[in-house]
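Thread: "does anyone have the structure for this chain?"

Original post by V.I.:
We have the sequence but no experimental structure in hand. Need at least a predicted one for the grant figures.
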Amino acid sequence: MPKLAISPTFLSEFSRLDHGIQTAALTAVQAYMTGDGAPTETVADASDPRVRLLQVGQEWSGVVAPGAEGSEWLITIRPHDEAAALARELPAAERPPAPRAGSSALAEPDDGAVELVEQASDGSPALTGPPRVSGPEELSAVLAKSFADWQITLHPRQHRIVDARFAGSAQVTGGPGTGKTVLALHRAAHLAHRDAARHPHDERRSILVTTFNRVLAQILSQQLDRVLPDRELRDRVEVATVDSLARSLVQERSGRSPETLGREELSGRWRDAARADGLPYSGRFLVDEWEQVILAQNLTRLTDYIRCERSGRMLHLAPEHRTQVWETIQRYTGGMEVANEWSYPQVALEAARVLGRSGPRYRHVVVDEAQDLHPTQWRMLRAAVPAGPDDLFIVGDPHQRIYDNRVSLASLGVNVRGRSHRLRVSYRVSQEILSWAMPILGRHPALGMDDNADTLAGYRSLLHGPEPVVRGCASRTEERAAMGDWVRVWLEAGVAPGSIAVAGRNQWVVRHIAKELQARGVPTAPLDSAEDVRAVRVGTLHRLKGQEFRCLAIVGMSDPLLPPKAAVDSAEGDPVALEQVYQQERNLLFVAGTRARDALYVSYTGAPSRLLPRVDGVGPHAGAAEPAGALSGV
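Reply from O.Q.:
Generated one for you, tokens below.
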């Protein structure tokens, strides 16, 4: 059976076609390959008499040109007259080069081809070949592995960091796909081997691997099981979130579990109380001031608060205003103490005090997604391990900060000077996806944890793959249908369900995603499901944090949803809070978009979010551009 490949420009054109034309085109291609219909016709006066037209519906045609060794190329799909005119003018020299023998979708970086139809394992034709990325020879073996194996494979150039001996704490930063998390896992495994050799009779959990949320901790634990299969060695490593560690330490001291409240709930409560008291401050401002200044600097006296530097807080507060803010916060937090209610940073600060009295718990600590930890959590981690060689190994990226936690490690007793490494090469996200995602961040450099500005200058990828596709839809019904088509094609291409994810900004969008897929008979599971669940993962953008997928669809990227109207309203005209809202949403979308390795699809209805970058002239800054089509297969 001959292969039908597509030219490099085909995807961009195909994505802009009407959904009905796309469906008719895919049906025609499948019928042509099976010999069940979709006739072709020669073109009179064509420069190359072998060029033919493939009938697509009543008024459209595809231009099919011959390749080498029986292969054929689908050049474009256009209205019949336009397709015929192009076919007449198409000289052999302008056709794409013939695909290499044995090549698959984007298997070579310079072949310019993507398979559109290939033979399935049961002999029947598949609708499309799986989307793949290509890279240099050094990555060929890695890309050929199963996706699960690929997720824990360390790039050879990074072994020197894993095996290094540091005189103190060490920090590794880098953009998405540079392998920071994989490096952290292998570092933990290396420390476990070293710890067993040094302390053969002490089998306690002496190494902590920690991150900021439960989903990431679960993923890290599952992947560490594979990186470190020896049970005795694995038992030396504890994987826990910083919040669960803090909670257990406080409960151990007091005998009761603290009742924790999130920032949104606190902001709502304090907003209502401030209004009742006639105070000119928003609830969000008061909570941010408490968590980002008072708790972050562990201020316990009004005089210290009046004198302190409020780094990152753009709104100036005169001394008399600081007194009013201090008294208000003290009144609110006093009520929380009576009710045994805590904020998460508050629990971590208390846990640090517990460790200060009882002493360190671990010999080594490995921290993943370090940019999202609060200063109080760093105080706890600093107290959890004695200062010395290889005490803290820290990985993170300031550009992926989705919470407004600004940290100066040096001020917290964590010195990484001379032991910092910046990774600038991505081995896990294609250059096409990175080029789309990086403009999302805006022009302001991120503040690193070492107090220096952090930029993505020189950041690049060695992988190449399909361009991201952005589609504007006329209605939510159309948007959900288009998303379902994408998932269907990925599944029929042979992509494992667990390697596909669909995400939205909020739970309302997520529920509709799940309903659409379930109506199509596609099993779904939450993004934090176990690895072996054979279902497409569905969840919010926040749940994508730290995860990786072959194919990813992000839906609902409309102006009222990103940033959420509720988040903008919560700023209540406070310019500092509003700027933080927008930057956090930029970072969140950047993080979400870079979770895809092979294929990224983004959609919106009505007006697109102003945070979306342009794609081939389509986007929030492209004026009244015609919405992109739903589906290009890969």
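V.I.: this helps a lot. Residues 489 and 633 are 6 Å apart (CA to CA).
O.Q.: and The chain has 21 helices and 25 strands.
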